[in-house]
Amino acid sequence: MVVRCPDCGALVEVPPGSRSGDLAECPNCAGHLLRLKAAGGEWVATLAHRVSCPACDELVTLAEDVRAGDMIECCGRRCRLTFEYGAFAAEE
Q1: Do 81 and 90 contact (CB within 8 A), yes or no?
Q2: How many CA atoms lie within 13 A of 35 on its CB side?
Q3: What is the pLDDT of residue 23?
């Protein structure tokens, strides 16, 4: 089974044993994770947004339903999400 990357259009193999909500990496898009979903007997993929923690630089994968202004927590600190130029960022 394969899914199409919503960013570059490449076909990405769905890892064996995958379940809806799992993440897979696009081999062509640097740093893009794909959120896999089972829909009507087929797999589809959406981008799983990630941000770097401003305190520790760890990459945090965001929930599917986040919005600008939401708060996330990493390394014991809370950060507010912003969204500009098509990407999320975390600010202390």
Answers
A1: yes
A2: 11
A3: 95
Ramachandran angles phi, psi of 67, nearest 5°: -140, 160
> What is the SS3 assignment for 84?
strand
* C-alpha to C-alpha distance for 60 and 32, rounded to whole angstroms: 12
Q: From CA 15, how far away is CA 78, in angstroms rounded?
A: 33
Q: Summarize pLDDT for 1-53 with one digit per residue, the tens.
A: 899 999 999 999 999 999 999 999 998 988 789 999 988 888 999 999 999 99
Return the domain boundaries, the chain. Answer: 2-48, 50-91
Residue 2 tokens, joined: 């394969």
**Is the overall model pTM greater than 0.85, yes or no?**
no
